[in-house]
Prior knowledge:
5 helices
Amino acid sequence: MKPTRSRIALVSGVIAISIALDQATKLIAQTYLSPQTIHLLGDTVRLRLAENTGAFLSLGAALSPTLRFWIFTVAAAAMVISVTAFALTTDDIPRDGIIAMAFVAGGGISNLIDRATRGGSVVDFLNFGIGSLRTGVLNVADMAIFFGALYVLWVGFHVDKGDSADEAAG
């Protein structure tokens, strides 16, 4: 399918919003958080500046710089391109699925911008939890990727199974 102007505008707009929100919050974090930690909502949210050479929640940070480059830059760029192309060209995706995929792409692009401008690392500053049960330190791009992917998976598992059965029988 050739992407329509409205679909291109939707995907581009969501990607741009994701990048703008992530980069703006990272700039604010870099300006105001170093070196202190800010505790909010009864310590449910912690704001603390961190450099992350790994992926989401620092996964892979201990890998060699060369391997991190191939996984977190080259493979991530290929994934962003694939998700964006799929969102733009696949016919039977509902609008909310397109938006979710655009958030995944936007978050990925924003983290790639960090890696390209920060020597392979990403700025993280958010930590959520209660007591000792906490997430790792993450950023707005990580949340866009996580919740966008989670939504795509949720929709994929909750598709009307009757439609698939009808198509297979037809």
